[in-house]
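User: Can you predict the 3D structure of Bax inhibitor-1/YccA family protein? Sequence below.
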Amino acid sequence: MVKTQYNEQHMGAAYGPYGQMTQAPQAETMRIDDVIVRTVALVGATFVAAMLTWGMFVSGDESQLGLAGLLMMVGSVVGIGIMIFSMFKPITNPFVAFAYAIGQGFILGGVSAIFEAQFEGIVVNALLGTVLVFAGMLALYKFRILKNSPMFTKVIVGAGFGIAGLLLVNFVASLFSVNLGLFATPGGDPTTLQWIIAIALTLWAAFSFILDFDMIEYSAANGAPKKYAWAGAFGLTAGLIFLYWNLLRLLSYFQGE
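Assistant: Sure. Here are the predicted structure tokens for Bax inhibitor-1/YccA family protein:
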């Protein structure tokens, strides 16, 4: 996972320090439209990859299930590697951005199929929730109801590093079949701690968009090189994926009670 979420997740460092993005460009400068086009392309790649592993799971063919599991494992490794890299350097290479989007799509498709088989309609609700939360945060930022600030940035980025560490530790523990009790199994009875973690991660995913919007707007207004449009698109895509993951988990908690 990622923002894998992400979730592993974009962790507030997808763009790099402001100073790196506002140097006099050698060629074209980025525009907000450039970020939108690239974000749509990355989200589209994620969706196509998700449909691939989704189809493998619902087919019931054992050979297809094995291939889906392999794709999901590759996607996990690629996603974690790219997310760790993005915490120290902006993702401005489109091939790296698409590798992340496709890898996450492989995981999303398989896991979503498993959740849907247990809780009919949960995937549609999670997708709808993701779109609504994103649109809501965009509106709050657009009308300056929520604004970025140095303190807000420190809180979001600091919490992001903490979340990244938590998810990484949980992932490594799971490889050794160790359950840290941070997340409830689908259909299980979540503990108070698991509810708190799920809600906290969902809120962080939502509020981190304010940081993304501000960085994109600032970069476009101050003449950042066009390649940084990929950094903006990567940040938004990673955020959407991380938000979806956490909404899917949170909805399963409600249905599991």
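The chain has a mean pLDDT of 88. The chain has one domain: 18-256.
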